[in-house]
Amino acid sequence: MARGIRDKVAILGMGCSRFGERWDCGPEDLMIEAFNEAIADAGIAASQIEAAWFGVCLEENNVGKTAVPLAQALRLPRIAATRVENACATGTEALRGAAYAVASGAYDIVLALGVEKLKDTGYGGLPVRTRGVNNDLWLPNATAPGAFAQLASAYAAKHHVDMADLKRAMAHVSVKSHANGALNPKAHLRNRITEEDVLKAMMIAEPLGLYDCCGVSDGAACAIVTTPEIARRLRPDIETVTIKALEVSVSNGEEAGFSNWDGAHIATARTAAARAYASARVDNPRTQIQMAEVHDCFSITEAVLMEDLGFSESGRVIYDVLDGVFDRDGALPVQPDGGLKCFGHPIGASGLRMIYEIYQQIHGRAGERQLPRVDLGLTQNLGGHPHQNVCAISIVGRLGA
Amino acid sequence: MNNSQDIHGVLSTSRYLPRLRLERSAIFAEHRWMAQGLKSVAKGRRTIANWDEDSVTMAVEAARALLADLPDIKPVELTLASTTLPFVERINAGIVASALGLGNELAVRDVASSARAAFTEFVSALRHAVPGHRVVLAAERRVARPASTQEMIFGDGAAGVLIGSGPAIATFVASHSVQADFVDHFRESGSNYDYGWEERWVRDEGYMKIATGAIASCLAAAGIAASDIAHFAMPAPLSRVNDAVAKRAGIRPETVVPTDFESIGDLGGAQPLAMLDSALRAAAPGALILVVAFGSGCDALLLRRTEQPIAKRVTDDGKSEASYMKYLSFTGQVTLEWGMRSEIDNKTALTAAWRECTKISHFEGGCCSSCGTVQFPRSRLCVNPECRAQDTQEAKSLANLPARVLSHTSDWLAYSPCPPFQFGHIDFEGGGRVLMEFADTDPDELQVGLPLRMVFRIKDFDSKRGFRRYFWKATPARGQ
Q1: Residue A190 lies in a domain
Q2: Dist. CA A387–CA A391, nearest whole Å
Q3: Nearest-CA residue of chain A relative to B457?
Q4: Radius of gyration over alpha carbons of chain B, in Å?
Q5: In what order do the strands lie in the sheet containing A388-398?
Q6: For FRET with A236, which of A17, A363, B109, B320 sits at 20 to 30 Å CA-CA?
Q7: Which region among B2-11, B100-109, B239-248 has the lowest average model confidence (pLDDT)?
């Protein structure tokens, strides 16, 4: 009988580069920046790492295929290394591969590292690319904002809410993330904005304006994981942080091609959340989880995810957002680090960056944005579009929490 | 079946006009500095194809209208006539037949080279009563040099006619064809623009002699007096040349069928069939209709309207377009800065395109014979999670099914030759959900629940290789 991953794997060290338009850095520089921080945090030598998982999404834009770029950048001593890709959920997938390898008993200490060098395209937004020869024959050439904007139209229609009210709540989501990002020295966007700025911004994909969209960034993040026993032995001086749940749910074409999806929520997020809560023994996420980092690629995504993750009742997220529930001083802070919106979104690194923030908060290292006390934090990392995606959820917390 | 249901003749006619109507005043405004003379033709508006329409897609729409009320007919031949076919090698009529889902058991052919090409085909099919139903389509998207008279008078559009035995709306009386290498205008293979000779000469030596001669011979063959003609349909790419020909031939002036110059323009090869469509809808039972097509010679055809009723044409005034620059861009006459997103390589894997042929051309999905779920694309396993049956899906086209918007956006980031790029999830009546592009949709028009119908359009251009791929798009079902 499978018993899940809870408390079987500990995070020994983490690192995260500064995110942003890192014009002067290549992927190698970003990887080294994140890795140096993690290896120092773990207090081990690089030679103690037995295997590695490497997350890159748009390899054609930066490092190319295979895990060789990681092994080469870090001069890993010919250990096993695997490249993983699951769209924007790639970072969490890298950690999942690493964590399950430790949980299996095959290795003691492994590395998960995600990197993305996006700002070598010459234009704003994510790179345009083929969706495969068959899909290109019929699928619309949707951009990410266009695909996620669909959520807003369907949500407003389903819950009979005025688009203006929904847009106000979406604006609040972005204002909150900018306020948090301003306190984060590693964040891509550190400016504060107002609701008026959001509502008056240039339209990208109706109803999403510029400030409803996250940054497109360069960056890297990594984690060194081991067993809780080894973690306690190597770092008896600090609290042991363990993985409580690490779940992935993948669309099978039902949302896109069957009529049982309302277009107003992320079906995989509900499935992955249910499994993650079961694994972490959480029955009331709104009270048992102290912070969340979700995939706020767009303001509307964060909004509907609050319902999918059980933080808001169905149809109530507008009120919760406007009441400040998810603000940094609210009942359940979401994106205390600024999120994809402001910390930035180097695709392969994002899932690990989310976990990095929980890890920093638990250890009390979050500086100006430090939350009172975090025992359990949740990350939700989404690859693809609302109707067809990969949803990865992790719950991370203090050992025993 | 009584006799009136089984007559060889014209079974239906149709006309398709693109929605966009370019204001001629907008054209003139850009040229008045150097071409004051255009003022005399700068009246009203002309049809222009949207960026994703060409002679193939417009022919598909004309054919769908043609066959709408006769769904059981399986044509044995489909002919597409145009001087603006997108492919020089690759049967364009075959793209149309595939989009219509006519199957493989028919002959398809393209004809070209003159504004009367379609009409010649039509006359030939009509006068020889051979078994089977024949579709003749004509479509034009002619591009004229900026500031030319042709730019003002041309219109984009298509028309069609279905010939065979059945409930005919008109029957053959007589015809006469004349060949003449009379070069009033020409266009060399590979060049974009016509070169034309003086209009007065074209009128006097061409229409007034060749056309009137063909008319006289046709009437003589039928033993009909010109004064008995009830409807005289002849395109008039030169102003009022149809009136002059009628007068010379002794045809009553009130019988001249309007050319719709002020609201549409001249549809080139599609114009004779489009005017036939107008004439038949206006004609009383028993009325004689004379249709004349001129171009490198002349065809004159005399028809008699039967008692078979014809549905009234749905009038659609289209949508006014005042941007001449947009027209220049749509027709590739000006290259605008579209940004790096437009650099995407739209290479088509022809192997995959053939494998997916019916899916792409006729919007063929699957209907699960086990649970009845309609799905697109058709797949090996049913999408219904309660079913999951394997290899149970029967082919089902979504092309003619009504649908509604589930979600939508107008995307200003994505590259589109006509921003914003509009797309969304749509639900078909009776099941089936597809993420689709919208065509001919106003930015503020989209809303959840909006009724839609499907249209066959250009999906992408591959400018590197000179290829274009087609797929279906959703358009608001207006006035239906």
Answers
A1: yes
A2: 11
A3: A138
A4: 23
A5: A80-84, A51-55, A110-116, A219-226, A10-16, A241-250, A388-398, A376-385, A291-293
A6: A17
A7: B2-11
| Alpha-carbon distance A80 to nearest alpha carbon in chain B (angstroms) | 36
- Would the pLDDT of A233 be above 80? yes
**Which is catalytic among the residues A57, A88, A297, A342?**
A88
* CB-based contact A259 B437, cutoff 8 Å: no
Q: Is A210 on the interface with B (CB under 8 A)?
A: no
Smallest Cα–Cα separation from B460: which of A137, A56, A180, A261? Answer: A137
Question: Of A178, A204, A234, which residue sits at a domain end?
Answer: A234
Q: Which two tokens stand for residue A39?
A: 């290896």
In this prediction, residues B68-75 reach a mean pLDDT of: 92
0.90 exceeded by pTM? yes
Catalytic residue status for A342: no
**Shortest distance, CA A168 to any CA of chain B (angstroms):** 18
Among A146, A149, A154, select the one facing B406 at the smallest CB separation: A154
Q: Which residues contact B444 (CB under 8 A, 6 or more apart)?
A: none
Pick B433's closest partner by Cβ from A128, A130, A256.
A256
Q: What is the CATH number of the domain that holds A222?
A: 3.40.47.10
CA distance B73 to chain A (A): 29
**Does the complex come out with an ipTM higher than 0.90?**
yes
**Over 60: is that where the pLDDT of B2 sits?**
no
Q: Which of A137, A208, A254 sits opposite B353 (nearest CB)?
A: A137
Instruction: Dump pLDDT digits (tens) for A377-401.
Output: 999 999 999 999 999 999 999 998 8
- Which residues from chain A sit within 8 angstroms of residue B433, using beta carbons? 256-259
Distance CA A52, CA A64 (A): 17
**Topology (CATH level 3) of domain B3-330:** Peroxisomal Thiolase; Chain A, domain 1 (3.40.47)
Concerning whether A345 is annotated as a catalytic residue, the answer is: yes
Specify the pLDDT at position B4.
58
pLDDT of residue B1: 39
Number of Cβ pairs < 8 A linking chain A and chain B: 139
Same domain, residue pair A349 and A249: yes
For the stretch A292-326, pLDDT in tens is 999 999 999 999 999 999 999 999 999 999 999 99
What residues does each domain of chain B span? 3-330, 340-363+398-476
Its domain, for residue A327, covers 142-212+244-392
Q: Are residues A208 and A98 in the same domain?
A: no
Protein fold of B340-363+398-476: OB fold (Dihydrolipoamide Acetyltransferase, E2P) (2.40.50)
